[in-house]
Write a structure and sequence with these properties.
Keywords: Signal. This protein is of the alpha+beta class. It has three helices and eleven strands; from the N terminus they run H-H-E-E-E-E-E-E-E-E-H-E-E-E.
């Protein structure tokens, strides 16, 4: 009887462990790995800008994994002295969402803010894709930038590099951040406290 109870206990333990690991999604793994960078800042370089806009040319590019909770990660993206951009990654019932929080110097929200997307596929622990969501499509139409309604944002997280990528027909923009060399954290983004 004692051997039977021991076997039953071991089987239940195995099933519980298997079920716990089976419930961890690629989005959960991506979020957990990104959370490990919390508090750190990294320099970036533009690796693709097609067609070239020159908007960020000769500017220091810095990402700062600044705020992390169990459900949200906020990553300010500084372009030179411009501290208006923050990427907000949140857990959802179906995976992850990515929003772009854009602020003015006084902290007020820009007219073009909170746009982004929600994952529509499982993705991988290293790559998540965010096609433009309904709010974003409506905002882009309202703001007279219909060419952006087909935007998909992608985040790549590998041991040595973090990549932010925007793609749509006839447009690709990609910034790679060197995770092997953390740098000094920049000041708080506009609209947030130090």
């Amino acid at each position: 009887m004692r051997k039977q109870l021991l076997r039953i206990g071991l089987c239940l333990s195995f099933l519980y462990t298997f079920q716990s690991h089976a419930n961890v999604t690629p989005a959960d793994q991506f979020f957990a790995n990104l959370s490990k960078l919390c508090g750190k800042a990294y320099a970036g370089t533009i690796s693709i800008d097609t067609p070239a806009t020159g908007a960020f040319a000769d500017q220091a590019l810095v990402m700062h994994v600044r705020e992390c909770t169990d459900t949200t990660i906020k990553i300010p993206f500084h372009v030179g002295d411009d501290r208006s951009r923050t990427w907000v990654i949140e857990k959802t019932l179906t995976g992850l969402s990515l929003k772009h929080d854009h602020r003015h110097r006084d902290g007020s929200e820009d007219d073009l803010t909170q746009y982004g997307g929600v994952v529509t596929a499982a993705g991988w622990p290293t790559v998540q894709s965010f096609p433009a969501d309904r709010f974003t499509v409506e905002l882009f139409i309202e703001q007279a930038i219909p060419q952006s309604i087909d935007n998909t944002w992608q985040l790549f997280l590998y041991p040595e590099v973090f990549t932010y990528r925007l793609i749509r027909p006839a447009r690709e923009f990609r910034v790679d951040f060197d995770l092997t060399n953390p740098i000094e954290a920049p000041p708080a983004p506009w609209g947030f406290e130090d």
